Amino acid sequence: MLSVNTNVGAMTALQFLNQTQTDLQTTQSHINSGLKVANAKDNGAVFAIAQNMRGNIAGYSAVSDSLNRGISTVDVAISAGQSISDLLNELKGKALAAADASLDTASRNALDADFTALRDQITTIVQNASFNGTNLVDGSVANFQALASADGQKKITASGQTLSLSGTIVTITSTATISTQSKASSMVSTINSSIANVNASLAKLASGVKKFTIQSTFVSKLVDTLTAGVGNLVDADMAVESAKLQSLQVKQQLGVQALSIANQAPSITLSLFR
Question: Which helix (H) or strand (E) holds 171?
């Protein structure tokens, strides 16, 4: 039917053209942002899932920072323990030398001076074995904890070790000397006990840092997996979007032409009256 009042063809062509325009804007948005789900309007359910996963990623980033601080803190403590173990070995050598009954007084005094300097060095090491304000070898921290989960509920613990003089691990007192042959002889046994204790403490510290390291590696892999998961949900496939863009541009041009043809239909009616 030919009508000058109602142009059904033009209305139909306009509907398809408007739809093509809407699809074209959506595709251009995907290409510009690189996301097929950039906000809740694109896909509310997928956006909510992606946001939850992004929250977990942010949480695990904080966990990773906490674990790295824990690793550094325990590493400092291990370095201090190794230095103290080395000093104890030197102290043992001095004590053994001073325990020689045939040693003259001047030599023994020299050994005692060296022994005292090395003994005091242990205190200096213990006092300076801090990282980020935490010292795991001076007795101020019994258990050091780092985050292990994104909700902050789970933690990993490393035990502190008191390596100060006059303690239960380093049993040498802060006033110990080897100024006499008898003191030197008894000191050897004390030092041997301290060496064994310090080495056991080092093993405990090493166990703690291993736990932190294993968890840190796991968290890093987990963050990568979650990030990839978010990408799978919301990232646009540029190859698909590129092909879709070209298709829509062609449809847009055809739609404009179809609308133009449909708009010319009423003018055909005039030929009927010629």
Answer: none
Sort residue 86 into left (φ over 0), alpha (ψ -120 to 50) or beta.
alpha
| Radius of gyration, CA atoms only, the chain | 39
Query: What distance in Å separates the CA atoms of residue 61 and residue 71, rounded to the nearest whole number?
Result: 15
- What is the residue type of 218? F
Closest CA to 198 of 81, 79, 77: 81
Domains and CATH numbers, the chain: 8-34+248-273 (no CATH), 44-233 (1.20.1330.10)
Low-confidence ranges of the chain (pLDDT < 70): 1-4, 269, 274
pTM of the predicted model over 0.85? no
List, as one string, the DSSP characters of 102-168: T--HHHHHHHHHHHHHHHHHHHHHHHH-EETTEESSSSS-SEEEEE-STTS--EEEEE----STTSS
